[in-house]
Specification:
449 residues, alpha/beta, Rossmann fold, DNA Cyclobutane Dipyrimidine Photolyase, subunit A, domain 3, five-stranded parallel sheet, globular
Length: 449
């Protein structure tokens, strides 16, 4: 009769690292040996439209690197392609599971998935432990005096800074306890991309290292797409290949504006947690009746970067070619889709979700609703970015534009698909109709027009 070893499971998800990993640390110091598992969740993967998805490849590359490290230690990563319930059933065949450990996820699907897992395990008298690791302050840690969630960023940021304690940023030295992993005679085979119906993309991913030289001037140069001095750490924060605690410590040292961006990330996560209706609908429900035009041909031109507005076209082409778009240009392209073309922000949100390497539901949703005026702490509906003045201000030498729109001065480059002045007025009229705003309530001019 085979004796199964008592052990605990660490369920790796959006925390693809062995270092400074809170859930892994808690598992490794639980008194039991630890088996790390990763589930390629078909509920997520089956919804992806392309066999060549660079994010799936990124996850697979990272897991391959982790497997190599574990193999050198005589341990192994255990992977499953299917759903978590199946994974636990299979693991129970070889492990006398004393508990399951993981780090929290705040997206609606993830919360439902974890609740189902907790119920499944509870029926087997197996405790389910989840920990804070994606953020410095989570769930109900940053609330107003009335114990409600913040819906405006600036007071949230002030409260976040006031509540943050040094212990919130202490590293969790999981890497020092890897001798507590379950030992195996042979490593478990890592599921291949081909087995899941995906193909390698050959994408070059940004490094996980912090460029301290660039980030020391982040606040001064972050809006200049030609310089591109942003951190490029979005994909690493999304999949947890870097520790948010380490990033916040570094941001406090290097640049307060970069720190503010990391706080924005946590702000949008708590919005998603407390107001899950933002997935699929406006945060401000009075915006549910905007009569969008939703012209498919206009949307196609926006997607392809052939609008005739160089800064918009440059951004969309950068996105399509690299899976990345500069932060300032994201704001311009989003405003153009919603305000100039009167296309529902959800169309743009879905397109960015499909293309962005650093796609994260909370931030993508929050920023798109900001651009459309439908979200918390959003740009007012009458704020319409002028693509011409935005380009003049942030790309005055057209360095960024010429990189992505080399045919700019050639006869074949299209004329602007819509006049800015006309588009702005049409947007104001359309929003007023949907919101029931009276004429006198609408400012005649704004700083972005």
């Amino acid at each position: 009769m085979r004796i199964r070893e008592k052990s605990v499971i660490f369920w790796m998800r959006r925390d693809l690292r062995l270092e400074d990993n809170r859930g892994l640390y808690e598992a490794l110091t639980s008194g039991y040996r630890v088996q790390i598992m990763f589930v390629f969740d078909r509920a997520i993967l089956d919804a992806l439209r392309h066999q060549k998805d660079a994010r799936v490849c990124f996850i697979h590359q990272r897991l391959t690197a982790i497997q190599e490290r574990l193999t050198a230690l005589g341990a192994s990563l255990w992977t499953h392609y299917g759903n978590p319930a199946e994974a636990f059933e299979k693991l129970l065949e070889d492990h006398d599971i004393q508990g399951v450990y993981c780090n929290r996820d705040y997206e609606p699907y993830a919360r439902e998935r974890d609740a189902a897992a907790a119920r499944q395990l509870d029926a087997l008298n197996i405790p389910f432990h989840d920990f804070k690791d994606q953020v410095a302050l989570d769930r109900d840690e940053v609330l107003t005096k009335n114990d409600t969630a913040y819906s405006v960023y600036t007071p949230y940021k002030r409260r976040w800074l006031a509540l943050l304690k040094e212990e919130d940023l202490l590293p969790c030295p999981s890497e020092k306890h890897l001798d507590g992993l379950v030992r195996v005679l042979q490593p478990y085979p890592l599921i291949s991309l081909e087995e899941m119906g995906f193909k390698e993309t050959g994408t070059r991913y940004p490094a996980a290292a912090v460029d301290e030289t660039a980030l020391r001037t982040y606040g001064e140069t972050r809006d200049l797409p030609a310089m591109d001095t942003t951190s490029r750490l979005g994909i690493h924060l999304r999949f947890g290949t870097v520790s948010i605690r380490a990033m916040i410590r570094k941001a406090r040292e290097l640049d307060p504006v970069w720190l503010s961006q990391l706080i924005w990330r946590e702000f949008f996560m708590q919005i998603l947690y407390h107001y899950p209706h933002v997935v699929g609908g406006p945060f401000r429900k009075e915006y549910a009746h905007i009569p969008w035009r939703n012209d498919p041909e206009d949307f196609e031109r926006w997607c392809n970067g052939t609008t005739g507005y160089p800064i918009v076209d440059a951004g969309m082409r950068e996105l399509n070619a690299t899976g990345y778009m500069h932060n300032r240009v994201r704001m311009i392209t989003a405003s153009f889709l919603c305000k100039h073309l009167l296309i529902d922000w959800r169309w743009g949100e879905r397109y960015f979700a499909e293309k962005l390497l650093d796609f994260e539901l909370a931030a993508n949703n929050g920023n798109w609703q900001w651009a459309a005026g439908t979200g918390c702490d959003a740009a007012p509906y009458f704020r319409v970015f002028n693509p011409w003045t935005q380009a003049q201000k942030f790309d005055p030498q057209m360095t960024y534009i010429k990189k992505w729109v080399p045919e700019l001065l050639e006869p074949g480059y299209p004329a602007p698909m819509i006049d800015h002045k006309f588009a702005r007025q049409r947007a104001l009229d359309t929003y007023k109709t949907g919101l029931g705003v009276k004429e006198k309530e609408t400012p005649q001019k704004d700083l972005f027009s």
